[in-house]
Amino acid sequence: MAKKKTKPTSETFEFQAETRQLLDIVIHSLYSHKEIFLRELVSNASDALDRLRFEALTTPDLLGKDEKLEIRIEADPEARTLTISDNGIGMSRDEVIANIGTIAKSGTRELMTKAKESKSTDTIAELIGQFGVGFYSAFMVADRVTLVTRRAGAEKATRWESTGGGEYTLDEDHLFHRGTTITLHLTDVDKDDGIDDFTDDWVVERIVKKYSDFVAYPIIVKKEKVEEEKDEAGKPIPEKTRTVVEEKTLNSMRPIWTRPASEVKDEEYAEFYRHISHDWNEAYPPLAFRAEGRIEYQALLFIPKKAPFDLFYREQSWGLQLYVRRVLIMDSCQDLLPPYLRFVKGVVDSSDLPLNISRETIQQDRHIQQMRKWLAKKVLDHLKEWKEKDEDEYLKFYDELGRVLKEGVGFDNENRDKLTPLLYFHSSHDEKKLTTLDGYVERMKEDQDEIYFLTGESLPVVKSSPHLEAFLEKGYEVLYLVDPVDEFLTQSLTDYEERKLKSVGKGEVKLGSEEERKKAEEELKEKKESYKDLMERLQKDLDEWIKEVRLSTRLTSSPVCLVGGDFDMSPHMERLLRQSEGAAIPVQKRILELNPGHDMLRKLQERFEKDAEDSVLGDYAYLLYGYALLAEGSDIPDPARYNRLVGELMVKGL
């Protein structure tokens, strides 16, 4: 951000190029209803009042004698200005530069990248809402915006002004109380473009009622009315009038979570959700409940219809708003819900917590711990009931947010039995329809005592895996686990309904009835003896990468595959760990299985019997190893050698 001084207390700053682009998006593409600017500015004022109350818990002097916290709106039709002011925390000069002078200071570049990738106005609106630049919506209806602010406890005020173009100015100013005053120099009324007369009292009142009725602080306007003057007897004096100014509070100020559900409209819930989540998409109907007894609290929780773009970011901010006796204590309290429910938004209001509770002590507070258990239980019970009543609608939720629930299986032992039935997986039973573990168990064959699955990086890779051949040929269902979290899920979810979960890519395979298994073992034993020397030769050639070469019982058409031991990591898990940890994780040696019924093995045996020291056998061994790696989506250790050998084979075959 460049700047140039114009006078001792005044500076002119130029927006960065990417910030100017974002500002252009906000002004021209963000909102379909331009009146929404007032909601954004009132919401910011409410946040400033919340922060003041919170800081005043430890620094009471910040409030001083002015304990009546409020938001005021004042219109001037002649000057065509609209002013929104609050007596909240205010900002210092440095905070103005950080919070107002720079759009989306924590993620501008990332936001720009996503905005460029998306051609959808709705998607851009969603992203900008989450990055918190609602202040700039003022430029949709104003050609100049002036902000004067004074930080609580500070002596000087700061004046910020911009026309929404390429620069803004900063000056010192005089504000005799703490807080922030924003004056919009309004553009002309243009109803075709969604610009009403925002100096009209009735227009302002309608917008506040529509979007901000739930705000916990009074939103006050001054209204003028003409009264007839009266004589001493109280009778009107003809042709004598006077103008009286009275104040009117536009919002009910009654917290939405304290009101009976029958009194709250769907539109009010929707606006409140947008207010606390900064999510431009809709949420499902809220979950409201009250707990009484040893611990008393009220909660109003929302589940979004669309997953936030940062759902799996390490630095993602999440948590519920925590109120104590209707005072906002924490905007994002992560201790009220386990991380696998981080998509849930909402508020919790308790009367049992101290007002001065800190982030450091909140983790040890027994009330918080108990509320966390109850809230998690309530959400999971709600999801269970939802799944049983309307599975199609539940699957829409699961498609957006279900992957996060899988994380809880490994971390929340107390709720594992509640979580696991809520999960869905791709399956060989029906490639178009997801299945639960309960559905899988119901379809299990009589001779089947294990739940079979295969993990991988995508459905196409897993569905084409040679590991599936024997299972599918004999009619055994296999779960396709292709979410990254599935690799970690299988580490903790080792059994379900007294059936072990078994990877078809690990260990040995024994399928069919007891009689069929014995017959298969006898046939394999004979073939092992026949191919024993060839197996030893191949093992010698591949010893650098393979810990064992053996005949397979899982292959029916493919010549070869790689399998792990029962307790080995899958290749997909290895890749995930390398990507996430950034560490040089060594490649573990696995088992190379050969199909005893394949012509390739038979011809290798014939060549081996002619000349056990034939050097070409080593090349073929490497080709088999490369074939197995490619089939599972893994990298070949020496691609150049593999390509050369394939080329030589093609020349010989042509």
Summarize the structure.
The protein contains 21 helices and 23 strands.
3D structure, described in words:
This protein has 654 residues and is α+β, with helices and mostly antiparallel strands. Residues 104-108 and 128-132 have low confidence and may be disordered. Helix 4 packs antiparallel against helix 5 (121-131), helix 9 runs antiparallel to helix 10 and helix 10 (391-411) packs across helix 15. Strand 5 (142-150) and strand 6 form a beta hairpin. The strands form 4 sheets. Strands 1-2-7-6-5-8-4-3-9-10 form a 10-stranded mixed beta sheet, covered by helices on one side. The protein has a 5-stranded mixed beta sheet with strand order 11-12-15-13-14, with helices on both faces. It is elongated. The chain is 37% helix and 22% strand.
Q: Overall pLDDT, averaged?
A: 85
DSSP summary, beta strand count: 23
Largest sheet: 10 strands, mixed
Assess the beta-strand content as a share of residues: 15-25%
Measure the end-to-end span: 66 Å
For this structure, the quaternary state is: single chain
Class by helix and strand content? alpha+beta
Shape: elongated
What is the rounded Rg?
A: 34 Å
Count, helices: 21
User: How much helicity do the residues have?
Assistant: 25-40%
Uncertain stretches of 5 or more adjacent residues: 104-108, 128-132
Q: Order the strands across the largest sheet as they lie in space.
A: 1-2-7-6-5-8-4-3-9-10
